[in-house]
Amino acid sequence: xxxxxxxxxxxxxxxxxxxxxxxxxxxxxxxxxxxxxxxxxxxxxxxxxxxxxxxxxxxxxxxxxxxxxxxxxxxxxxxxxxxxxxxxxxxxxxxxxxxxxxxxxxxxxxxxxxxxxxxxxxxxxxxxxxxxxxxxxxxxxxxxxxxxxxxxxxxxxxxxxxxxxxxxxxxxxxxxxxxxxxxxxxxxxxxxxxxxxxxxxxxxxxxxxxxxxxxxxxxxxxxxxxxxxxxxxxxxxxxxxxxxxxxxxxxxxxxxxxxxxxxxxxxxxxxxxxxxxxxxxxxxxxxxxxxxxxxxxxxxxxxxxxxxxxxxxxxxxxxxxxxxxxxxxxxxxxxxxxxxxxxxxxxxxxxxxxxxxxxxxxxxxxxxxxxxxxxxxxxxxxxxxxxxxxxxxxxxxxxxxxxxxxxxxxxxxxxxxxxxxxxxxxxxxxxxxxxxxxxxxxxxxxxxxxxxxxxxxxxxxxxxxxxxxxxxxxxxxxxxxxxxxx
Length: 486
Hints:
Elements (H helix, E strand, L loop, with lengths): L6 H9 L2 H30 L7 H17 L1 H14 L3 E5 L2 H15 L3 E4 L3 H5 L2 H6 L4 E4 L2 H8 L16 H12 L7 H18 L2 E4 L3 E3 L4 E6 L3 H5 L5 E7 L3 E2 L2 H16 L6 E5 L13 E7 L3 H5 L14 H5 L1 H6 L10 H12 L16 H5 L6 H14 L5 H14 L2 H14 L4 E3 L5 E3 L15 E2 L6 H14 L1
Parallel strand pairs: 1-10, 2-3, 2-4, 4-7, 5-8, 7-10
Antiparallel strand pairs: 5-6, 6-9, 11-12, 12-13
Helix pairs in contact: 2-12, 3-12, 9-10, 16-18
């Protein structure tokens, strides 16, 4: 779904898709439980002295590493650039998406490159690299299985880690079948076999390999790629030229800092103790080495990040793109990724997208949050996303961007909640005010349905408990009287 489609229309479409909601909820819950189990195991290992630390200790160390790095980002960017050049690589600086895409185009034109293969990279999704290259007549193929699926579907990722979380086997088989020119079975062996055979040829004929980077080590100029498929390693070793597009915040100062991050990233993302493939790339191929690119280009991308550095939202740049906040988010579990309209969905997208691109088109996105705080609890860096959402909502209100009825409703709530007498009256009579929308279950419990106007969103896809006929304060007073009479 495009961001050009109004937010509420995207939400309604997602809520009406029972398959999407079921698939997203099932996978997100599975990842959430796996993460919980592997973090508990980490705590046990730490007690035995067999790990660098338990979850809270590692999170505290990771927070300090990122705080320090962001506070001295200019120095570490300079150090990383110097080391990359010493290693034989070429460093480029891009202030925005247009410049980054232009740099990639110029590198390709200089080499006469027409075919590119790309490993999974959220930052290249952010700058719409594929579209920019295709507009110039170049072929760029996604080599991550999930990314390849959504590329064939002409969609954006629905999840930071699992881009095709919303697709069924039948849908995938149909997409692959259109490429194969024949109908394919839906079993894993057939689908994976087709992708393997098709993409292998793309690897061998690609002129350029494009990657992102999970981390860049400043002291050595090393690019780090964390993947569960061999495509990242092939993309960075088979084509004669490698281009890595890297968000400027992806730095860590030292190799030992990497150990902390790698204890948190796979556990938070997929519930694994360690990812299947971990690649450390320090420069292009050297004489006598059997594989690796002849040229290595690293593009450090700003695209709004420097504007966040000196603000109260700086810690958002600590995000390591693990997706744990999505898996724990009750809103994401109901909507999936595309309803957000942004490349970055879920809680991190709700904060990061308005910060990078402004409130225009994205102010309504700030309402896609229950403020439950599950995102912060599960974030390996402890980023307080729900608190940042509250701050951004405040900025949006200050700019007059909230719904006019919402302003009136909140003023009424403020009036009632700051006057004890009014509050008690409202609490005692609330059940009468919503009586036309109150429904009764067989067990006698009551719930609200089909609320009107700005309250409709609370009940159009779920039930909401009806106000108690006796509010808590009244029941508590009665209980105290009963206890006193004994």
